[in-house]
Amino acid sequence: MTAATTTVRAACPQDCPDTCAMLVNVDENGRAVNVAGDPDHPYTNGGLCVKVNNYLDRVYDPGRVLFPLRRTGPKGSGRFERITWEAAVAEIAEKFTAIAAEHGPEAIMPVSYLGTQGILNGLNVGDPFFAKLGATVAERTYCDSGSCTAYAMTIGDTAGVDPESLVHSKFILVWACNIMSTNLHLWPYIAKARKNGAKVVVVDPIRSRTAAAADQHIAIRPGTDGALALSMAHVIIAEGLTDQDYIDRYTVGFPEFAERVERYTPEWAETETGVPAETIRTLAREYATAQPSVIRIGVAVERHAGGGQTVRALSCLPGLVGAWRKPGGGILQLPLWAFPVNWGAFMHPEMLTPGTRVINQYTLGAALAGDLPEGPPLKALMVYNSNPVVTTPDQDRLIEGLKREDLFTVVSEQFMTDTADYADIVLPATTQLEQSDIMFSWGHLYITYNHQAIEALGEAVPNTELFRRLAAAMGFDDPVFQRTDEEMIAEAFDWSHPNMEGITVESLKEKGWQRLTVPGPDEYAPHAEGNFPTPSGKAEFVSAAAAGGNFVVPLFRQGSNDHQPGQPVDPLPHYIAPRESAATNPELAARYPLNLLTPKSHAFLNSSFGNHDFHRQVASEHSLVIHPDDAASRGIEEGAPVRVFNDRGTFTVVATVQDTVPRGVVVSPMGGWRKNSKASATLATVNPTVFGDLGNAPTFSDTLVDVEIA
Ligand SMILES: Nc1nc2c(c(=O)[nH]1)N[C@H]1C(S)=C(S)[C@@H](COP(=O)(O)OP(=O)(O)OC[C@H]3O[C@@H](n4cnc5c(=O)[nH]c(N)nc54)[C@H](O)[C@@H]3O)O[C@H]1N2
Ligand SMILES: Nc1nc2c(c(=O)[nH]1)N[C@H]1C(S)=C(S)[C@@H](COP(=O)(O)OP(=O)(O)OC[C@H]3O[C@@H](n4cnc5c(=O)[nH]c(N)nc54)[C@H](O)[C@@H]3O)O[C@H]1N2
Ligand code: SF4
Ligand SMILES: [Mo]
């Protein structure tokens, strides 16, 4: 770097557990010239990843949306003209006001998720605006909602294990998590534990990059994880491998749980999971006796009919064997819960009108088609931080809905995504280098500060400013809509929380990142003596919260938990088989014999980066990995274009013939854009909109298809 450059401390904004600390070099003309990882950051250790190494190419991409646009061609044609911010905001306010007057404000719905996960500009940035408007409440159970419900039902909203403590683990069970692609910076800790003698086992239907790097790969049948977890409990109890002292002191409901799992023998589990009974026995023995043992669950563990109960069972295992006693023992889900984020200051649930209609974003296609729970038809959508055309199931219906001439759609974006193509108004959004923010993490215990490094390009604005402008245009003058970014940063955390001792806005600004004030990774064992944030204060095999029925954690629901109590849930963990499988739906399986998995792409971040040439080259063409036998019986050769289909839809991709997937399973990584696809459709056309058992989680892995040469 030349002497004239300055270095700015920043944070990767992506929806990724690693939340890397970044250093941005800016030249004397105010142009960012380099982005790198901060070598001093203990967890991320100076590395970024293949997605973000070239972040400047995204920031300065000629395809950036830099000015407000109004549609001039038919919806989806991508024809727009430039307009001023004043005109754009005035038109939105006029349309929202007219629609609310004619149909009621519930005819308007926000659609958003985690394009950026900063506390200011991320999940909740629009919540007060839509609450004030009285718009339909958007339920955003995109990711980990079912898992969070199940985890909370069992051990409460605890941070669980510190990922850095994994160096102390003696047995690491990676369950439905492709760490090498999705949680890269965790691997060095696992590698270190392994050097110290730990065994690493991966449970995944496919030989992922992570499974290939492990000591053992257990190739389970998709969606049958609950059977394996419950059967492990069966073996542990039957063989007397429990930590009875831990059970007696710090858990509730053990006798009932023990009785429940009697039925889940390894022989039974073998028929469900395809994993040999002897392998299950060995796994259970090793997991129980090599202490401390840890289970790292991926978000993917929830993506089938019984995903919630799977996480219930998995969350019970550490209590059974006393894994919580030592650092590096327990379960690692989302350490997010350790951050005292002042969610209320961003969600403002008190501004919601009780009884407001709730629509789950996964059902947007159906909702636009008029298949609504109650209330008026949807007449306006406001999309930000999300690209639902690619990330939501029922793609064909969603496109039909977005084409509706009577629907007014606003999209705030950095790029002309597949969703932005259907907008009436597109608004330009800044990237992380052009905005200030402050970040929690769902993969480690550090807060990270993001200083604005460069001036906003064109007329792009951060999401905070977008909603300030919209609120002003609507005449909303509550103090919450007047807050500056500085004021929001000051409200981001409960600064008096014990985990924030010695952490202030000033110290964060200066240092860039700080670890929460919790014991270090060599001491971090929050449940060595129970202290679970559950009603009983113990790990609950019999869950008091489950007895109250299914629920969605308010974080995933615009702050609202105002709903009819969900279906009653059996308070003991139990097995729920996949919906779409040969065992549960033989008729469907006869027509569609292959189980489709749609995991994360190595080179994309959900659909973000799906427009950049470099990332597309790394990800290669939209592909489908198929076992050589399944390929041969269909006459499919490597590189052949193939059609993947079921009753819901069809998409076309290129075949990759490999035995990394078992017979009967095909894999197509998600995130590729529809406009780059072979037949104007991506895998979201075939995924079901049906929810799993808990937390309204999606069931992407519970999808049967067939494949033929295109
Ligand atoms: N089939 C299948 N579908 C899935 C999944 C799967 O595994 N399989 N996974 C699900 C999961 S876990 C998730 S989290 C969701 C993710 O779904 P989404 O959150 O919709 O993720 P992205 O597709 O990355 O869309 C984020 C968009 O926000 C934009 N953006 C980024 N920063 C900003 C900003 O500051 N302001 C504004 N206005 N926009 C910004 C980006 O350009 C991008 O287009 O997808 C879900 N969908
Ligand atoms: N490179 C990259 N990194 C990402 C993202 C990205 O898009 N790309 N997205 C981020 C987001 S939003 C999220 S939620 C996380 C998700 O991170 P992960 O939870 O790791 O998500 P996936 O890659 O979807 O799935 C992980 C593994 O689960 C397996 N799997 C699928 N179904 C089942 C099943 O029924 N049982 C079992 N045992 N395994 C199953 C898949 O084969 C896959 O190898 O990654 C984050 N990091
Ligand atoms: S996407 Fe994840 S791994 Fe990559 S730089 Fe961002 S936080 Fe780090
Ligand atoms: Mo996610």
UniProtKB/TrEMBL annotation:
Its cofactor is Mo-bis(molybdopterin guanine dinucleotide). Signal peptide: none annotated. It holds the Pfam family Molybdop_Fe4S4. The keyword Metal-binding applies. The keyword Electron transport does not apply. Residues 5-63 form the 4Fe-4S Mo/W bis-MGD-type domain. SUPFAM superfamilies: ADC-like (SSF50692), Formate dehydrogenase/DMSO reductase, domains 1-3 (SSF53706). InterPro entries: Asp_de-COase-like_dom_sf, MoPterin_dinucl-bd_dom, Mopterin_OxRdtase, Mopterin_OxRdtase_4Fe-4S_dom, Mopterin_OxRdtase_prok_CS, Prok_Mopterin_Oxidored. It comes from the Bacteria. Keywords: Iron, Iron-sulfur, Metal-binding, Molybdenum, Oxidoreductase. One of its GO terms (molecular function) is iron-sulfur cluster binding. Belongs to the prokaryotic molybdopterin-containing oxidoreductase family. This is Anaerobic selenocysteine-containing dehydrogenase. It comes from Pseudonocardia oroxyli. The lineage of its organism: Bacteria, Bacillati, Actinomycetota, Actinomycetes, Pseudonocardiales.
